[in-house]
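USER:
Working in pairs, take the chain set out below, taking as long as you need, and write a paragraph about the fold.
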Amino acid sequence: WEPPNWRQQLENIRQMRASRDAPVDSQGCERTADTSTTPQVYRYQVLVSLMLSSQTKDPVTFAAMEKLKAHGCTVDKILNTSDDKLGEMIYPVGFWRKKVDYIKKATNICKAQYQGDIPCTISELVELPGVGPKMAHICMSVAWGQLTGIGVDTHVHRICNRLGWTKKPTKTPEESRLAVEAWLPREEWSELNVLLVGFGQQICLPVGPNCQSCLNRDICPGAENRKIPKKSPKKSLHA
């Protein structure tokens, strides 16, 4: 099984995302970590950025990471930072108090079990407090350069269901990931997260999607269920 029109839908989304000017393009986890530092510190910063990003808009995560990097976003530095200070730096990310606890516990594990590095497998990453499958797959791609699966967040989950990319409606991002990976060619996996997240930030919004300006409006099952206002014909100046 594969959804009808998926190739055209995907190509249309690539066209709509050609300018790469969504928040995720400039402030996603690939942009928050310091590429000039050591590979080990870079990987740790990617992990922390992903942990902060849950239930949080990209600009807020980006601002928090800027404060952390200015303070020193390394395993040892974070372990020697008080919970109050850490909370002050990451506020107002979503569930910031809980994330202080998650980051401290995950950092302790990195120090004790991975010689100050981060885990290098999906199974080990999801064992860290506050790290789910989406974060783990993106972390494997960005931090380790390994494609292990599609990173499916709420944007990707929503859009895949609207496009009819799941054989039946799915209830969770993880269900969507498994459903899409079952048919989508592996060579399309790597760009899908950033492509669809940006599309979801700019056009296929959670509430009030801009179907009118979407190139997929005529081949999207989700758009068929919405009333898309037709443009009224322009009146002639000489009428």
User: Anything to note?
Assistant: Residues 6-22+150-213 form a domain with the Endonuclease Iii, domain 2 fold (CATH 1.10.1670.10).
